[in-house]
Amino acid sequence: GCVCHWKNLDGGRPSYLLTASTMKKHLLYLLTLCLMTSACGSSTGDSTPCSRIDLPHPSAPANLANAAVPSTMMDLDAPAAQTYTFIGAGDIASSVNNAAESTAKLLDAAVAADSNTIVFTTGDNVHPCGSAFEYSTYYDPTWGRHKARTRPSPGNHDYETSGASGYFNYFCPNSANCSFPGGTKPPYYSYNLGNWHLISLNSEQINSSQLTWLQDDLATHSDSCILAYWHRPRFTSGTGASSQLDVQPFWDVLYAAKADVVVNGHEHSYERFAKMSASGSADPNGIRQFVVGTGGIVNFGFGSIMPNSEVRLANIQGVIKFSLHNEGYDWTFVPSTSTKLGDSGSDICNM
């Protein structure tokens, strides 16, 4: 049969990338036009195959199709899905060094390239006490440049100040100037970027209320790609702390919901794991975990290597940048200094 090419309005024939979702939307459209175009054979019995049929690009107006295709066929088109930039790290600002400024410049560059960039944090945003003074003195002049676009999570050092008041009051001094959705001060929350559902959890206050909320939240987003982030990692090869068993309930709930990505901090290093089940065994349909405690605090090294650990970077500062697509994602670890070290890749969602 037919070899069909999109035909641009100017007569050119550009290459056209069909994603899985686009293919689903246009397959019936393509088949209908091919079958209804006489060049591929007519009702008179001409069986001569065509070598090419020029079809209008799917985004072209329906009246350019030059074929009596039902209007329902023309309604299959959808605008191209937007890609969202999602960038961040944990363990960020302190008086020890100026590394938070170097990683903040990576945020500057991302925002310059994409004004809709969302910044996230994986806790321990300031060291060592999580105080209002530390936020105003060390975080605000650096990562605070992007406070309005930041969706944070707290860490254990943020709770060194009672009730993590430094954290909550910095990111949400009032409802009109608040980094949290809804203008309140929730310890955990969620939001959407296109087809992605993002969840900021609180690993410092794991209780039945948070787990029930998480289950209910995920139940209403079963058709979304899912990324969750919080501070303490369930799995780590780092020497700063061991794997955190008390966050296992997060993994149990997220794995059952076919979540795609988990991002943590706490360990002052970078580590990427293969996709895993909630028990930590390799699973091609599991969750990929990233540990990105590289926002600026002094680094840790690695000890015994955990199963399924694929990439480990020590003595490095930087951020992880995700490009979130409709049905998948790309990741890049961006170091803040000139180095050949890094990490990047792509994957599809578990939906």
**Helical percent range?**
10-25%
Beta strand %: 15-25%
Q: Give the spatial strand order of the biggest sheet.
A: 6-7-8-9-11-10-12
Total number of helical segments?
7
The helix-strand sequence is: EHEHEHEHEHEEHEHEEEEEEE
Describe this structure in words.
With 351 residues, this protein is of the alpha/beta class. The protein has helices at residues 20-36, 71-74, 99-113, 132-139, 165-171, 208-219, 248-256; strands at 4-7, 53-56, 84-89, 118-121, 150-151, 189-193, 196-200, 225-229, 261-264, 270-273, 288-292, 309-313, 318-324, 328-335, 343-348. Strands 6-7-8-9-11-10-12 form a seven-stranded mixed beta sheet, with no helix packed on it. Strands 5-4-3-13-14-15 form a six-stranded mixed beta sheet, covered by helices on one side. It has a two-stranded parallel sheet with strand order 1-2. Strand 13 (318-324) and strand 14 (328-335) form a beta hairpin. The longest helix is centred in the N-terminal third of the chain and has 17 residues, at 20-36. The radius of gyration is 24 Å and the shape is globular. It starts with a strand and ends with a strand. Mean pLDDT is 82; it is low at 1-79.
Structural descriptors:
six-stranded mixed β-sheet, alpha/beta, 351 residues
Sum this structure up briefly.
This protein is α/β, with parallel strands linked by helices and 351 residues long. Helix content is 21%, strand content 21%.
